[in-house]
């Protein structure tokens, strides 16, 4: 299992479960959001993305409007990568923003919702 991140984010790669878990939490500024995006990109190196599910977990997230373009870049990247499945943890007010943005990029067919990361990892289809 590979873990990248810091105080405000974690990117966990579970090769056994073929899952990538991206968590962003707390009061996130521009630097933290950029670090998350950089770590996310680094974590994908060497992976066959089409075999992996992506779990996006915003957790008690608060941020300014200045960070929204960085989050939008993350969403655009996710939409382009063609994950096997994307599961959004529906536990935060930012989950609705992420859901709407992903739907705008045409990934609604592969988008699922869960109440927790554990539930997301148990989903079969």
Give an account of the 3D structure.
The protein has 125 residues and is α/β, with parallel strands linked by helices. The chain has a single domain (2-122), classed as 2-Layer Sandwich (Transcription Regulator spoIIAA), CATH 3.30.750. Helices cover 37% and strands 32% of the residues. The protein has a 6-stranded mixed sheet. Helix 1 (30-43) links the parallel strand 3 and strand 4. Helix 1 (30-43) packs parallel to helix 2 (68-81). The relative contact order is 0.17.
Produce a short descriptive summary.
The protein is of the alpha/beta class and 125 residues long. It is 37% helix and 32% strand.
- Strands ordered across the widest β-sheet: 1-2-3-4-5-6
CATH architecture name: 2-Layer Sandwich
As a percent range, the share of helical residues equals 25-40%
SSE topology string: EEEHEHEHEH
**Can you identify the CATH class?**
Alpha Beta
How many strands, which pairing sense, and closed or not: the largest β-sheet?
6 strands, mixed
Got a strand count? 6
The coarse silhouette is globular
Protein topology:
Blueprint lengths: L1 E4 L3 E6 L4 E10 L1 H14 L9 E11 L4 H14 L3 E5 L3 H12 L6 E4 L2 H6 L3
Parallel strand pairs: 3-4, 4-5, 5-6
Antiparallel strand pairs: 1-2, 2-3
Helix pairs in contact: 1-2
Protein traits:
125 residues; alpha/beta; Transcription Regulator spoIIAA; 4 helices; 32% strand
